[in-house]
Specification:
Length: 167
């Protein structure tokens, strides 16, 4: 595989502002968040942020940093039975697991408009406030009928974009 940008088709260079994987989100059953955070800490992860997110999400989240890198794991614990995370846990027989993969974008609005124009199925009507002061939107796992991704994707614009994870 070549790392030379000239090897990429020109249309790939038009994709607006996808920068890197922001985080991998893992759902945990209600009442298990603290135990999961403790287990990750034993692996050397560090909790950077904890927040309850209401609205359509209805989750308690913990954001964990992997070593001294920008790599993050987000643990999501449902707050209510109506939480989409709880519904996914129910579908999985009561077990947590991969909730979504989030990509950092330079501009949530630019990425949203581009993906909508290209026919991707977007769950949110528009970019919206996320945790940590971010702006987010979600792409459906079956975003493209012809080639479904099979996993929920989140696009995340960080208000301090370009800044490394705070230590």
């Amino acid at each position: 595989m070549s790392t030379n940008q000239e090897a990429f088709p020109a249309e790939l260079l038009e994709v607006p502002g996808f920068e890197f994987v922001d985080h991998v989100a893992i759902s945990v059953p209600r009442g298990h968040l603290d135990a999961q955070v403790s287990a990750y800490k034993m692996l050397g992860f560090r909790e950077l942020h904890r927040e309850e997110v209401y609205g359509t999400d209805q989750v308690r989240e913990s954001l964990l940093q992997v070593g001294d890198s920008q790599n993050l794991i987000q643990l999501l614990e449902p707050l209510t039975e109506d939480s989409p995370v709880q519904k996914a846990i129910d579908k999985a027989g009561g077990r947590g697991g991969l909730a979504h993969v989030a990509f950092r974008v330079k501009s949530a609005q630019t990425a949203f408009s581009y993906l909508k124009e290209k026919g991707f199925k977007i769950i949110d009507a528009a970019p919206r406030p996320g945790s940590r002061g971010t702006t987010v939107f979600f792409l459906h796992p079956k975003s493209r009928e012809d080639t479904p991704f099979g996993v929920l994707f989140e696009c995340v614009e960080d208000p301090g974009s370009g800044a490394a994870v705070a230590h």
